[in-house]
Every structure is written in C-alpha cells, then in structure tokens.
Design goal:
The structure holds 2 protein chains of 2 kinds. Chain A is α+β, with helices and mostly antiparallel strands. Chain A contains 12 helices and 9 strands. Chain A folds into 3 domains: 76 residues, no CATH class; 107 residues, no CATH class; 211 residues, MetI-like (MetI-like fold), CATH 1.10.3720. In chain A, strands 3-2-1-5-6 form a 5-stranded mixed sheet, with no helix packed on it. A 4-stranded antiparallel sheet of chain A has the order 4-9-8-7, with no helix packed on it. Chain B contains 10 helices and 10 strands. In chain B, the strands form 2 sheets. A 6-stranded mixed sheet of chain B has the order 6-7-8-3-9-10, with helices on both faces. Chain B is α/β, with parallel strands linked by helices. The chains are: A alpha+beta, B alpha/beta. At the A-B interface, helix 9 and helix 10 of A face strand 6 and helix 3 of B. The structure holds adenosine-5'-triphosphate (ATP) and magnesium ion.
Chain lengths: 424, 268
C-alpha cells in the first residue's frame, strides 16, 4: 500500500512537473527541434531538460525528508510519525463468578531519549482499577493491569474485551489508540501507532547525514579521518590504474602490431578479460594480504586487460589509407608509429581509460568491503556492522560523487586532449 | 625526363576459401613525364589494384613497375597518393598535414614553411591553415590532400576517385584546380574516376579497362584537358567531339556491364 502510493506520488510529480514547466516556463520553440516528427529518433535532437533534472533531485530529497521527519522540511510535508502523547483505552475484566467491570488505561508515549513525568490516574470504582504507564516512542509496553485490581489473574480474572471489542486469539486487536495483543499469560501488550516514518536506524534524515559528514571529517572514523578513507581509496585507484595503463598500453600496441605478440597474449588477454576483478579478491588476499600491495595489484589487473584491449583496438582500427598515405609521403615505420598509429589510437585509449577508471573505482570499494584497514568501502561495511546507518549512507553518497567526478574529469580530458575523436 | 613504365603486370588474389581472383592480367603501359591519364572501367575491373601496385602498397604476382628505370619495390616519396577520403591526419592542423612529407624527411621548418603557405594559398585555403581537419568540408579536405601530396614533390601523383565524394559544383571547381596544378607543376598524374565526363575532361590520355580479368580495353588521346586549362569546363563540354566521345565510351562501358550481368546470370 505504501509503496504503491509512493509510486503514484512519484508519477504525479513527474507528469505534473512536465505540464507545469511546459505551460509556464518553456518559451515557444521555433527551431527545428520543434518539428519532432522529423527528428524523432535522432538521438542528438534529444537534450536533457535541466528543469526536469532539478525537479527530479528535489523530489528524491523531499521523499527522503518526508519519510524521515527531516527538520529541513516543513512539518506538514512529513508523513505521519510515531505517536507521541497520551493514549487511552478501556478494558473489560471478567471475574471468575462472571461479573464484569471496566477500567481505563492511560499510556503516556514520550519522545525518544527524554525524561517524562510518570502519569497518574484515579483508581476509579469497581473491582477493576484504572492503570497508568509510560513508554518511549515507537516501543510497546506490557500492562500488568491486575496489579491494582481487586481480582487478579491468579484468582481467575481475565480480560474479555478492550474498548468493547473482544480480543482475537491470535494477532493484534486494532483500536483507536494503537494495537493490543494478549500475552501468553493474559496480560495486555500495547503498541502505540508507529506511523509511516522510518527510524534513523533504518534511514536517517538528510541532516543527520550532513552532520555525520562534518563529524567524520573532523573526528574521523576508526582512526582515520573521512578524507583519509576516501583519499586512500582514490590513491589505490590512481596507482593501480596508472600501472595498468603503463603496462597495458604498450602491450596492446605490441599485440596490434606484431603477429607473435598477438598470438602469445591473445589467449591470456581473452581469458582474463571476462573474469570480474572481484573474483580475484580471494586469491589476491591469500597471496598478498589485505594491505596496499594486494589492493594495488588487484586494480592493476582490473585495468590492465581493459587498457591492453583498448590500445589493441586503437592500433587495429587505423584506416589503412592513412598508413598508406604516410608511407607514400616518405615516412618510415617508426615515424608512422609515432605520427599516425599512436595519435590515431588515442581516442580508443581514452575510451578504455574511462571504462577502466570506472571499473577500478567499483573494484576498490568492493575489495575494501571484503577486507581493509582504511578506505571508503571499509568505512561503510564497519559502520553497517554497528548499525550506523548514517555513515553507511554518507559513504555511499560520497562514493557515488567521487565515481561521477572521475567520469566527468575523464570526459573533460578527452574533449581537450583528443578533440578529433569520432570525426575521422 | 621521368618515365613510368608498367611492364606486363598481373595480379592474382588468393582467397581464403582456396579460389582466386585475377584482378589484373598482362597490363602494359608507359607514361611520359607530365602526362595526365584518367582511368575508367566498370566496378571491380582492377583500377584500385593497379594504382596500389604503382604506389608500391601491393606487390604484383607477375611483371614490374619501373619509375625512371628503377623498379618499384615498396611505397616511397616518389609516388604520391590522393585517396577518395579519410586519409588525412585529423590530429594535425591543416598546415601540419600539408607539411607532413617535408617534416618526415627531416627538413627544417624554414625550408618548407614558405612553400606550404604558398600551396595552401593556391588550393584556396588561405584562411584555414590552423584549422583542424574535421572543421573542413569534404571539398576542402580533398584540397588539403592535394596540397599535402604536392608539398612532397612526388614524380607521379596517383589519385583514386579523389572527387568521388563531392557534390557537382565543388567537383567542377576541383576539376579546374587539378588541371591548373597539372599545368603549373608538370607532374605525371594518374586519376581513377567513375565519371565518364571527368575522365574526358581531365584525361590527356584515357584508359578504359575491362573486368575479369582486369585488362586494358582501349586507350584514347584527347584534346580536352589542354583545352580545359584556365577555361570554363562547361564550354569544353559543348564541343561536339566531346559529346561524341562521351557517347562512345558510355556505350562501351554499358556493353561491358551487360556482359558481366549476362555472365553472372549464365553462371547461376
Ligand atoms: N585484398 C584483396 N583480396 C581479394 N580480392 C581483392 C582484393 N582487392 C581487390 N580484390 C578483387 O580484385 C578485383 C579488382 O578490385 P579493385 O578494387 O581493383 O576494383 P576497382 O576497379 O577499383 O573497383 P571500384 O571501381 O569498385 O573501386 C575485384 O574483383 C576485387 O574483388
Ligand atoms: Mg577502386
């Protein structure tokens, strides 16, 4: 029910945003893209609507805030939270001789972690006396109703109804104030309504995560500051990738230029390439332990094959007419390698480098999840063991941002360094 | 006086499935320095193969090519090639493309800079010297290719459908340019084309090739190239002799195409 209404809400914002932006903000389109029937299917004619991106992100954060009772949102946007305040209900007690009497119960539900004044209530008349208890929000409480009653459970008294409704043998009875279950020994267990909000232990509100970023940035986590955790991961990726490129690119060139090299390394490269680097982690740990050496060797292996294959493709992909042209302009073999084959392979190498960096980043985090003393992956796996969900979420977000940043950087470098890519 | 002698060339391609294609058979021909020859023929008759052998990219199965009495054994700077498209180095500027030959020969910039500039002026790319190749139109790119070839001072210029990818108007301008450069530089030029009109206009000599096996079918000596230098090519096309030659060659090629079709149908 909740997932469904969430989905409906999400679709409503998606569609509503579209019509509102279209109606009020988009100027009239007179250029060719207005003729979408002509350009339909032309990928280059589709550009992301920035307003949609903004609304999309804001919607996600609003949903996050609403379900966690975030302070960043006005409270009317919150979904119902756990009940706080005084809950009341009435139980009907039947004594062994068949007579019945009603008594009131007052449950004071207080906010998590606060002191509360214990509630009191007049005992009232009859053999069933009124009770008062207190409980922290989101928790349930067992009410030993007969402590003050004239007839107790030991003497054969039992509760037959709450708020006038009989209690089912199994499962809770839903009443206005919350839900009631009968314990095995005949006592009442009362749970105030939980509401729809998530407890911070499952999903902390955004501001908790922000606070946590600042805290870990200052005080650190497990002997290392936040920046050290992230920095170590990044350092491993950069060193591992650099080594992989340093070996992989010349290897790829050799494979693209020499039959012997091609024949020798083809089986190795083709075999190693489809193995997910994660599958190598156990062996790497056995051989090199969980320290820096093992991590860097793993990332070296993760990028090596990708870079070798990219360089090989770059060399094999050179148009033969370019090589011919260079020959008949008097260039030697080495000059052709230096001035034709290598520059011609750069776009492929950049594509490979982008893929390799992405794979390395994923691999380093995963390998730190398995075993590490410091690193982004280690931070979130340790935090998850202690239910520090805010750190876990903070870590995931930062890992995502860094991964995205790496890709943006690589694309930028590609644009600047190989502007002729795809224009041959 | 340089002389290009093609001596009994044959070329057979052995296919992986065991069969073979006779792409050229007993082709003999001599070109004098400064001659401009166009080559016509139905698709697959071995024109590109012939040119690749002349350039030295392919070794013939029989026969030889002699340039100034020296046997051609591989590609070198004596025979420049202009490809249909895609043979420019897009990681270099227009200027660096044109100066590629002299640079590879280890010449100092002072030795070639002036000439490269001059060549770019001639082909009408004065304002595009520092531009990247991919910023140029197809016609401009072919002019760069032409200038790059000339900057290297080859004895013979080989062109494989150099204007094939251009629109009609650009193509006509380029034809005039080729004629102009031919007269000014006095180079020996061999130009492959699919256009009968182009072959007539640009060919001082015109070679018609026939397929299966690729061989010389007929050769013409024509006055139109000389007439076309510095003149309006459309005027040249009004010449009755031109029209008559065009019809003759067109029907010759049609006959060849029909023969091929007939043969493939009979084979099925
Ligand atoms: N590398 C090769 N391997 C096998 N066969 C080849 C090869 N190159 C050319 N051929 C064959 O040789 C014949 C001549 O080819 P070529 O490319 O010289 O023809 P062409 O006259 O240039 O044709 P077009 O006008 O279509 O360019 C064709 O039958 C072709 O299939
Ligand atoms: Mg051809």
């Amino acid at each position: 029910m909740i997932p469904l209404s969430l989905l409906l809400f999400y679709i409503a914002v998606f569609t509503g945003g579209f019509f509102i932006v279209k109606r009020f903000f988009a100027g009239p389109k007179n250029d060719f893209t207005a003729l979408k029937t002509v350009t339909f299917g032309d990928e280059s004619a589709v550009v992301p609507a920035r307003s949609a991106s903004v609304i999309s992100i804001v919607t996600l954060f609003v949903m996050w805030g609403a379900f966690t009772g975030s302070n960043l949102l006005p409270s009317f946007l919150h979904v119902s939270g756990p009940f706080i305040g005084d809950a009341r209900f009435t139980y009907t007690l039947e004594s062994p001789d068949g007579t019945r009497d009603d008594a009131d119960v007052l449950v004071r539900v207080f906010p998590f972690g606060t002191e509360v004044e214990e509630p009191t209530i007049e005992p009232g008349s009859g053999f069933a006396k009124n009770d008062a208890v207190s409980v922290s929000q989101g928790r349930s409480v067992t009410i030993l109703f007969d402590k003050n009653d004239a007839v107790t459970r030991k003497e054969g008294a039992r509760i037959v109804a709450v708020d006038g409704k009989p209690i089912p043998a199994e499962g809770p009875l839903e009443i206005d104030a919350g839900s009631i279950t009968m314990t095995g020994k005949g006592a009442l267990r009362f749970a105030p309504p939980l509401g729809l909000q998530m407890e911070p232990i499952w999903l902390p509100p955004p501001e908790y995560v922000v606070t946590r970023v600042m805290e870990t940035a200052q005080d650190g986590f497990r002997n290392f500051t936040l920046w050290e955790h992230l920095g170590y991961s990044l350092f491993r990726v950069i060193v591992g990738f650099a080594l992989g490129a340093l070996v992989g690119i010349p290897l790829g060139y050799a494979m693209g230029l020499s039959n012997w090299f091609r024949g020798w390394f083809d089986p190795i490269v083709e075999f190693m390439r489809p193995i997910p680097p994660l599958a190598l982690i156990p062996l790497i740990i056995i051989w090199f332990g969980i320290g820096e050496k093992g991590k860097i060797i793993l990332l070296f292996l993760a990028s090596l094959w990708i870079m070798a294959i990219a360089a090989r493709a770059g060399v094999s992909g050179v148009r033969i007419s370019k090589v011919y042209a260079a020959y008949s302009l008097g260039a030697s073999k080495w000059q052709i390698l230096r001035h034709v084959i290598i520059p011609n392979s750069l776009p492929d190498i950049f594509t490979g480098a982008r893929v390799a960096m992405g794979v390395c980043w994923g691999t380093v985090v995963a390998s730190e999840l398995v075993a590490a003393e410091v690193g982004a992956g280690m931070m979130i796996i340790v935090a998850s063991k202690f239910q520090q969900t805010d750190i876990v979420i903070m870590g995931i977000i930062l890992i995502g941002i860094i991964g995205f940043g790496i890709d943006v950087l690589m694309r930028w470098a590609e644009r600047v360094l190989v502007p002729w890519k795809g224009k041959g | 006086m340089s002389e290009l002698k093609i001596d009994n060339l044959s070329m057979r391609f052995d296919l992986p499935n065991g069969s073979s294609v006779q792409a050229l058979k007993d082709v003999s021909l001599t070109l004098q320095s400064g001659e401009l020859m166009s080559v016509l023929g139905p698709s697959g008759c071995g024109k590109t193969t012939l040119l690749n052998i002349l350039a030295g990219f392919l070794a013939p199965t029989e026969g030889q090519v002699l340039l100034n009495g020296q046997k051609v054994t591989g590609p070198d700077a004596h025979r420049g090639m202009v490809f249909q498209q895609g043979a420019l180095f897009e990681w270099m500027s227009v200027r660096d493309n044109v100066s590629f030959g002299p640079r590879m020969a280890g010449k100092a910039p002072s030795d070639y800079a002036e000439e490269v500039d001059h060549l770019l002026d001639i082909v009408g790319l004065k304002d595009f010297k520092e531009k990247a190749i991919y910023e140029l139109s197809g016609g401009m790119q072919q002019r760069v290719a032409l200038a790059r070839c000339l900057a290297n001072h080859p004895d013979v210029i080989l062109m494989d459908e150099p204007l094939g990818a251009l629109d009609a108007l650009t193509r006509e301008k380029m034809q005039s340019l080729v004629l102009k450069l031919w007269k000014e530089t006095g180079k020996t030029i061999i130009l492959i084309t699919h256009s009968v009109e182009e072959a007539l206009l640009l060919g001082e000599r015109l070679l018609v090739m026939a397929p299966r096996p690729g061989r010389i079918h007929k050769e013409y000596r024509l006055p139109f190239a000389d007439a076309g230098v510095g003149a309006d090519l459309r005027e040249v096309k009004k010449n009755p002799e031109y029209t008559q030659k065009r019809e003759e060659i067109l029907s010759m090629i049609w006959d060849m195409e029909e023969e091929i079709m007939g043969r493939t149908e009979a084979a099925q």
